[in-house]
Design goal:
- The structure is a homotrimer of 353-residue chains.
- The first copy, chain A, is an alpha/beta fold and 353 residues long.
- Chain A has three domains: 91 residues, Udp-n-acetylmuramoylalanyl-d-glutamate--2,6- Diaminopimelate Ligase, Chain: A, domain 1; 218 residues, Hexapeptide repeat proteins (UDP N-Acetylglucosamine Acyltransferase, domain 1), CATH 2.160.10.10; 25 residues.
- The first copy, chain A, is built from six helices and 37 strands.
- In chain A, the strands form five sheets. In chain A, strands 6-9-12-15-18-23-26-29-32-35-37 form an eleven-stranded parallel sheet, with no helix packed on it.
- In chain A, β4, α3 and β5 form a beta-alpha-beta unit.
- Chain A starts with a helix and ends with a helix.
- Chains in contact: A-B, A-C, B-C.
- The interface between B and C is large, with 66 and 65 residues.
Chain lengths: 353, 353, 353
Amino acid sequence: MKASELAAILGGDIEGVDVDLFACGGLEEARPGDLSFCKDAKHAALVETTRASAVLLPRGWKVPPSRLRAGAPFAVIRVDDPDRACMTAAEKFAPPEPERAPGVHPSAVVDPSVKIGRGVHVGPFTVIEKNAVIGDGAVVDAQVFVGEGCRVGAGTRIYPQVTLREGTVVGRDCIIHCGVRLGGDGYGFNNGRRPDGSVFIEKIPQLGIVEIGDGVEIGSNTTIDRARIGRTYIGPMTKIDNLVQIGHNVKVKGYSGLIAQSGVAGSTEIGYGCLIWAQAGISGHIKIADGVQVGPQAGVPQSLDGSMKYVIGAPAMSMRDLAAITLAPKMIAKLKAEIKEIKARMAEGARKR
Amino acid sequence: MKASELAAILGGDIEGVDVDLFACGGLEEARPGDLSFCKDAKHAALVETTRASAVLLPRGWKVPPSRLRAGAPFAVIRVDDPDRACMTAAEKFAPPEPERAPGVHPSAVVDPSVKIGRGVHVGPFTVIEKNAVIGDGAVVDAQVFVGEGCRVGAGTRIYPQVTLREGTVVGRDCIIHCGVRLGGDGYGFNNGRRPDGSVFIEKIPQLGIVEIGDGVEIGSNTTIDRARIGRTYIGPMTKIDNLVQIGHNVKVKGYSGLIAQSGVAGSTEIGYGCLIWAQAGISGHIKIADGVQVGPQAGVPQSLDGSMKYVIGAPAMSMRDLAAITLAPKMIAKLKAEIKEIKARMAEGARKR
Amino acid sequence: MKASELAAILGGDIEGVDVDLFACGGLEEARPGDLSFCKDAKHAALVETTRASAVLLPRGWKVPPSRLRAGAPFAVIRVDDPDRACMTAAEKFAPPEPERAPGVHPSAVVDPSVKIGRGVHVGPFTVIEKNAVIGDGAVVDAQVFVGEGCRVGAGTRIYPQVTLREGTVVGRDCIIHCGVRLGGDGYGFNNGRRPDGSVFIEKIPQLGIVEIGDGVEIGSNTTIDRARIGRTYIGPMTKIDNLVQIGHNVKVKGYSGLIAQSGVAGSTEIGYGCLIWAQAGISGHIKIADGVQVGPQAGVPQSLDGSMKYVIGAPAMSMRDLAAITLAPKMIAKLKAEIKEIKARMAEGARKR
């Protein structure tokens, strides 16, 4: 897009050369062809050195960049609010949302018993098995597997290469990203020794399902296991990031966030409005109270009743307790010095007597 | 299913309304349409408040729930063993195991050189390349990729969207869940500087394979890399959870468990009967003795000879040693108080003299 | 392959029985049919006990294994450099690299607008959407999804079941392993309360792309999110292992390594030549200076300016500082003993006076 076209869209005034622009980028990261922005005079030096082909600046900004004066292939677009203008520009540069017209791709293998709502898109090489139900306006992208008896709510978007094992229920207006695995068997085995002393390991049948509430988003390659009995439940508006693991019979009440690579072991309950930060791990069969935040890499072995609003470390504790452990060597050095001093004074006292 | 039908199956006696039942759920989680159960009088209050439409209770239980007395749409089924009856009921409510009839789906792309055993099922859009061998009764579900020369043992179940890179060997009666990646290249690079000072990073060819023993189960989206030379080996009856990473040339002897999101770096050996808990990490080129348990989030930098049966923390240590670190601030505060007291007494002594 | 054939290839001399060989393996791991090697007299005992059918030994090695003397089905191949000979043998035993002849598999769904270079291979059930560009000699394996407007550089290899969401750019000579997810939406939500007190959680549109530089390798099931605006950027020659998570707007300058299950949160910059070890976590909006190594399971909450070349622990610190914390209980015990001694001496002093 020409800088002048963009200036017109943004209601801004262009100075300099009418360059071609292809993308947005921060002042430091930008390359030729990029539009960048600056709203704060303290970053003026970066406006001088950026490789961007154009920069959005506030109207009030006095000194023009020297490149502009030099006649380089560079433009300045002056706008009221560079931040907001950049967001608008980003929408113009964004890859267009792929069209997903209603209809079932002829290559898809859809069982005749499947109920498909109005306006549903089913992509190439997707498999939908017996008795599944796909709600109105849902998009089931390419190469997806929807097992027997699954139900997908209206308006839900399933990206390519997702698998929904049999019986999985997904609510309305959900977004399921590539590679998500819903309804895999939970990890459950009985083991012990037979009368003859030999070891056995037996699979415990995983007879339940996964149920996802309305408005849930699930990030790429996340895995959520089916319940042993009943349901693994992800409540409404929960937002799950990439590579998260949710064990069997976990219950996430709703309106919570689980950040990348975190994990929740079997039968644990996460309250409303919780935030589980990246790489945190939560043990099985415990309860996390509403609104609690579990810090990055924290390990939670026991229930949290909400008396601590934020925990960190492993085993999880308050920020203050973790800081005390980190400071232990400094405290020890101090005590050591005091003891040395006491001993010296005692030795001196003994000499004097 | 009608509560009365279920009662007949369970050999139980029904009281109250003959409600329709669709699923199982704990007393607290249950919803209308659910069957719940209680065997312990101390949870009697939950029987009063549960939203379940029916509850399994022991025959001896005297007081019926008040909802029963009130004539609500609610049933009690009295049985000898509510626990066991609930398991039986759960099997009735479970999504039916999808039928996988013998035969190769017409859409599958199977090389003519592939040897397919008796009773094998191959699902839609599955690719099986040259010289692969699929054992009797194996199920290779939809959208699976089986590379050149792979061997899949009899009775093994491969769920949708698994990839087996060339040469991978899977034993008999294994279960491979959705999104598992077997035989990816191990992480191996040579790097350094050329005589002219420029940096190079060269891929080390990964020439070996992955070999999975009999009776192994591998969870969703787990990755196991091919050996640099020889085999990455997962011994018989090993049970691996979701999102686990196994590096090249790792050897897991057998009868071990690796819980979700744990990782084992290259060339490490895990003994028989080990249990690696969630999110634990084990360094490369070390040995974990038979029967050792590595706790959740533990980091093991060195071999474990079995003198500690359970390790935790990073670097991994005994429970006792980790507790001592966690308690350090408390111990320090105590010593500080003692030193303060000593100083006070010394000052007093000096005054007196 | 016959041991004699292999000896001829390796320029070695065979002694003993001309056994059949199928694979390579270490002396301890090897099985019948395996070739092993030993170059160091201190491992001579293992040469006696190995189950391998043949062993590569240095020419100078005097004592032949007793199995050789006993006439067992066993061979010794004497070579100048057993290490190197083993590498050569491993190449002979390696599963053959699957042939990927130029051409588009008839089952692939490729939009007519897609530009496909010379010598490109596109596998079965692969989907390539509108306006994508595939460079000369690239291999796009089976069951891959390439979204609208994606660009894949010349010579790049994409293994089965990878997804590239719309707009993703991959450089030349990259290797993308099975199950990699490029261009998923970053994790970004606005939340708060409406005037009526109800909670809202709104998705922030993720308008940018993922751009992968030349010579990058990405391990199985790794996920890299699209930028909120602009690009998530993985610079040239970066080597990423399995199950790694890279957040939106991350910039990895290049020539760096990210080991398995590590994670980098949004908008963070990783310098040139960094090494992020397994399961490490790096917070968002920080910078890691060129050449810094982040140890396994480390958690980095703040920028690292390069004054520490290696950090470990959580929060990340120097090796020395982590060791001091680990040693705290020992130090405390020592101080406790000293205080006890001081008190005893004071009590004695008081008695004497």
